[in-house]
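TODO from last week: model Co-chaperone DjlA N-terminal domain-containing protein.
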Amino acid sequence: MALFSRLRGSKGPDTTIAKAVIAPSVLTMAADGRIDNSEIAQLANLCGFSPIFFGIEGKVISDLINQIISDVRAKGSEQVLREAAGVLSPALRETAFCFAARISLADGTIDRAEEATLAATAAVLEVNRDVLNKILDVVVILQRPANA
């Protein structure tokens, strides 16, 4: 079947949902004014194990990250976040927030800018307070060091 996909004009998987899911993560990564390699590695790892990204190559994910950064420069963070929320179901909004929360702890700490970005993200994505607390609890558990 893949042999004939080019004949049907297939351009690959639709990345609309994937881009919307990682947009809050990219905003969180950039909140402190820089994007660290540990944050990029963490996001790549999350994408690699999420069924949302099955069939989407790493290069395409890198391109999506760059598109989001360009969108932020052109439209602003809040608009990018609102657009992402607009294409995600409530369940995938929770997933997007979970990704962003995980990214915020990639370097082991959440700074004030990341905390503010996460709060704004939760509000725009309309993540229920109880779900939000569960997500944060699990993310903290996942990020415990070996000497905990």
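Done. Residues 1-9 have pLDDT under 50 and may be disordered.
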